[in-house]
TrEMBL record:
An example molecular function term from Gene Ontology annotations: DNA binding
Superkingdom classification of source: Bacteria
Protein name (database record): DNA segregation ATPase, FtsK/SpoIIIE family
Keyword flag Lipid metabolism: no
Amino acid sequence: MRRKVVQQRARVTNALEALRHQIGLALGAARNAHRAAEDELARLRLEQLVVSVGLENAATDPQVAEHRNDPALASVLSWLENVKSSFYADWADGPERLRQLVASAAPGPAGRPPGEWLGRLGTFDGTKPPELWRIGSATVDGTSIGRPSTTLTFDVAVPLLDESHLSITSVPKSRATVDALVENLLMRVLSTFTPGAVRVHLWDVGQLTAILPNFYALSRTSAVTVHDPTRLVDLLDELAGHIRRIHAHTLQAGYPSLPAMRRATGKRVEPWRIAVLYGNGEDLAPEHLRDLKRVASGALAAGISLILVDVPTVLGGSVETISLLDDRRAITSMTGPDVVVDLDPPLPAGQVASAASRLAEAIVTRQGGPRSFFDLLPTEFGQECSARELRAPVGFHEGEPVEVVIGDTTPHALIGGPSGSGKTNFLYALLGSLTARYSPDELALYLLDFKEGVSFAGLAPGKKDESWLPHARLIGVNVNTDREFGLALLRFLSDEMRRRSAAAKEFEVTNIAELREQDPDGHWPRIVAVIDEFQYLFAERDSVTAMATALLEDLARRGRSQGIHLILASQDIAGIEAFWGKPAVFEQCTLRIAMPKARRVLAEANQAAVAAPRWHAVINHESGVAHGNQLAHIPDASAKNTFPALQRQLWQQYATHGRPRLFDGAVAPRLSESTAFGTLAPGTDRPRALVGQSIEVADNAHGIELPTAPGRNLAVLGSSRTEALSVLDAAARSLARQFEAGTAEFLLGCAVDTCLDEVDALANLLAEHGHKAAVVTAAELPALFADLAERMSHSDGRTFVMLYGVDAVLPALEHKELGKPSGLDHLRTLLKQGPSKGVHVLGWWRGVARLKDTLGFNGTEDIGAWVALDVQGSELAPFCAGQVVHWSPRPGRALFFDRGTHASPEVTIPFHRPEADDV
Ligand SMILES: Nc1ncnc2c1ncn2[C@@H]1O[C@H](COP(=O)(O)OP(=O)(O)OP(=O)(O)O)[C@@H](O)[C@H]1O
C-alpha cells in the first residue's frame, strides 16, 4: 500500500517537473520574440528617421547622430542605399517611359505640339476620350540616376474628360498664365473631337464677358457658353439637370455611367461638358459650395468635368491639382511636390481666335440651322417598345435633340402657355414623334380638345383626307360645351385602369412592364390621354366638376403603374388655377412643359419660360424645378401638309388598325350612321326607342325600352320644335326597325299644324317599311283616344301613339259630356293602362306644366322616361323621383331620364333629321 503511494507521488512530481520545463521553454521563446520585435521596431523607427531627413543628409543630421552607436544604424543605412540604387536603376528609363505614356494616353491634339493641330477641325468622335491632356514638361537632375550634370525632361499631362476634375491655384499676378493654361487645355480638347462634341461653360466671379476672349467666336454656338457672374446658381442648376437626366437615361438603358454606356454601345449620345469656374480664392457661399460638391460628385459619370480656378473647396470624386509657383511654373498632383512643371507657353492668340472661328463655323454648318418636324422622326417607324416608358424627341437645342419621357418618374404632363404660344403645335410635334416610334400596339391615344375649333379633327378620317392616325382610339373636338364628354373619357380611362390592375393582380405583378412580360400575348399598349384646355372640366361648381376631380386624382395617382398617362394642356393661369384645391393632380404632373411667357407651369421661382424665345418650350422633367429646365426649339408641326404627310404614311403602314371614334360636339349625329340604330332588328319583346346619341367614349345611343309593362311611355318636354321632332322621329324609326312588316301600328297624332309636313313624311316612311301608319289631326284626337281606350284590351300587336304638341288640344280633351269620360280621361287611361297591353304613348308636350295638367293628380308614374329640351332643371324634379336636377338648356342637347335604368338624368344629343335641312 505504502509502495503504491510512493509510486504515485513520484509520477505526479515527474509530471510537474516536465510541465515546469515546458513553461520555462515557452517563456524563453516569448522573451526572445519580444526582444526581436523590439529590435525590429527600433530599426523601423530608425529607417523612418533616415527617410524623413533624407538618405543623403543622414551623415550630418544631428538626430541620426544620436544613434551613432546603435548597431542597427549601419544595416538601416545600407538597406536604404540598396533600395535607392535599385529604384534609380528602374527610374533610369523613367523619363522615356513617361514620354511614351503621355504619347499613347494623349494622342493627337491631346499631347502633340500645337503646330500639328491648332486650326484644324477635330475628327475624334470615338467612345473613349484621350486619358491625358498635356500641360507642360518637367526636367529632373540626372545625378540621381548616376548621370551627374545631365538633365532629363519628360512630358506632364493631366487627366480630364471622364477621368477627373481639375483644381488650379494661382499666385498673385498670374492670371495670364492661368488663362493660357486653361485655354491650352480647352483648345486641345476642342481640337480633338468633331465639332459640337464638347460644350464648354465659362463662369468667372469677377467678369461678365472677356473670359478667354480668343474663344469669342465659339460663344455664338453651343460649344462655349459664358455665364453671368452673379448667377452661379443657374449654371450649377443646369449642370445638375444634365446629370440627373443623363443618369436616369443611362440607368434606364442598364449602364452605370455615361462613359460605360458609350463604351458598351459604341455611340456618343451626349456631348462632353467642361465647366470652368474662376473664383477669387475666397470661399463660395455655403449654398453654392454645397451645390458645387453635389455636381462634382455626379459629374464625371455624366461626362461632365470641372476646372476650378482659385475655388477653395474639397470636391468629391477624383480631382487633380495644379498649383502655380510663379508665372511659368507649377507643381501638380500628377507628379508630386518635388517635380516642378514648366507650363507650356501660351498658344498664339491670333491662331486660337481663328481656330475658334473655324470651329464655330463648322458647328453652325453641322447643326444645319433650324430643324424641321421631319428631323424628329426616326428613319424606320414603329421600332420602339413602350413596356418601360415612352421616349421621343420633341425639339432641338443647339442642334441636339431634346426628348420627352413619359414613364415611371414622369407619368403625367402639364403643358401651359398663353394663346398662340404654340401649345397645339407642341402637341403635334409630340404626337408625331411618338407615333412614328411606337406602333399602335405600343401606344393608344385618346385626344380631347375643349377649345373651340377642330385641332385634332384632322387625325380622324375626313371628307378631304380619308386617312387617320392609327394610334388614335378616340378624338373629341368641339366639346367645350360638352363637359360630360370629358367626364366620359375619364370614366373610360378609370375603367381601363381597373381592368389593367385586375389583370396585373391575376398575373401577380404590380405594373404594366411586368404585366407585359407575364402576358406577352395580351394587348397592353401605353395609353396617352391628351386633354387640351382641360380647365373646362372644372368650369362650374357642379357634379361634373366634382366627378372629374375625383376621377382625375385617381388616374393621376394610380395611372402610372398601369401605363395610363395624362397630358393636360391649358392657357396657364386659368388652367393652373383650376388645379387649386386639386394638388394631387398638379403634383403628379411631374413633366412640365412651359411655352414662352407661360406662368405657374414651372416652379414659382423658375423664370425660364419668361425668357424663352418664340417657338421654343422649356421642358422640365423635375416638376418645374430650375435644374430640370431644358430649352428646346420646337419645329413647326402645324404647317400645311406636315403632320398629314406623316399620318398618311402611318395609316398605310398600320392599315389594319381600326379608325378612331370621332366625337364632334358641333355636328349632330345621324341616326342612320349610329351603331345602335344599325344593330336594331326584329324579334324582340323589349323594343327600344332611340332618342339621342349618348355622350360616351363608345358610340352608344340613349333609348327607352318598351316592354309591355306599366309606365312605359315617353314624354318629350319643351317648346323646341326641331329637337322634339327629331326625338320622336328617331324613336319611331328605330321602333319600326324592330318589327316585321305589318306587325306594328303607328298612330301619329299631330296637334300642331306647323308640324304636319314632318309628321306626314314620317308616316310615309313608316308605311314604306310596311307598317300601319296613320296621321291623326288635332280635331280627331279626342276620338282617337276614346277609340284606343276602348280597343286596347283586345290589342294583340304593338301600337305606338306618337303625339305632337298634345297640349294644344288639352281644352278640347277636357270637354266633358255629362256621364261620359272626357278625351283627357281616355288619354289618362291610355297612359296608365296602355303600356301593359302593348299600347305606348310617345308624346311631345311643350311645357312641364302642360304635361302635369295632362296627367292630373298621381299621373307622373305613367311617364317612365322623358327627354327635356328647353326646360329648366328645377321644373323636372317631380318626374325624377324628387331629386334635384341640374340642367340649363343648351342648343342641340337634351336631358334624358328613364326611371327604369337611370339613377339620374343624362345629357343626350338628339339626332339630326335629314329632312330638317329641307324645312
Ligand atoms: N414651333 C413653331 N414654329 C412655327 N410656327 C409655329 C410654331 N408653333 C406654333 N406656330 C404657329 O403659331 C400659331 C399658333 O400656334 P398654336 O395654335 O400651336 O398655339 P396655341 O398655344 O395652341 O394657341 P391657342 O391656345 O390659342 O390655340 C399657329 O398658326 C402655328 O402654325
